[in-house]
Amino acid sequence: MKHSLFIPIALLLIASFLFASCEGGLEPPIEEPNPTGVITGSITYSGEWPTEDSLVDLRFVPLKSPPQTAQDIFSDIENLVFSEPLDFFVEKDTFIVNEVPNGFYVYNTVAQQFGNNIFGDWKPVGLYDQNDGIIIVKGDTTTISIHVDFENLPPFPPE
């Protein structure tokens, strides 16, 4: 009789040990969020476009802090992201910025390079103003819209 109880008790102890030592091996791993996201958007333009000689470049640029000078835009150059060049002399355009590091972006602008100094000749021509102008990137895609009114440019430096 003792021998007939030994096998079930031994199996029960082994099973208990295996279940107690299991750390959710069959559960899917917790997914870490992507370290970057995407900002995509549309831009509408109004007013008279600047002269062609002052349109060197035009891009959407998300920034983590408001710049006080054009050089401030490049102060964190290793984390600076921006769109491909935008089209000139159009009513509407779209953009996409891939691999935007997660975080809060508080100054999101369509920036115009108006001269040959790539680090100094920039000015904002339109600002994202919904959600208090803040874009939060957290491994996903954020879609925004911006209006650029060439007759009513935002102040720079920001007030």
Kindly report how far apart the N and C termini lie. Answer: 90 Å
Q: So what's the CATH class?
A: Mainly Beta
Oligomer: single chain
Question: How many structural domains can be distinguished in the coordinates?
Answer: 1
Radius of gyration: 27 Å
- How confident overall, as mean pLDDT? 87
Sheet bearing the most strands, described? 3 strands, mixed
Order of helices and strands: HEEEEEEEE
Q: If classified by CATH, what would the architecture be?
A: Sandwich
Helical stretch tally: 1
The fraction of residues in strands falls at 35-45%
Silhouette: elongated
Helical proportion, percent range: 10-25%
| Overall number of strands | 8
Q: CATH fold name, please?
A: Immunoglobulin-like
Structural class: mainly beta
Instruction: Output the strand order for the largest sheet.
Output: 3-1-8
Low-confidence stretches: none
List the keywords.
three-stranded mixed beta sheet, 159 residues, 1 helix, Immunoglobulin-like, 8 strands, 35% strand
Topology:
Layout: H1 2-21, E1 36-46, E2 57-63, E3 92-101, E4 103-105, E5 107-113, E6 122-127, E7 135-137, E8 141-149
Parallel strand pairs: 1-8
Antiparallel strand pairs: 1-3, 2-5, 4-7, 5-6
Keywords: Signal
Protein name: Lipoprotein
Organism: Rhodohalobacter sulfatireducens
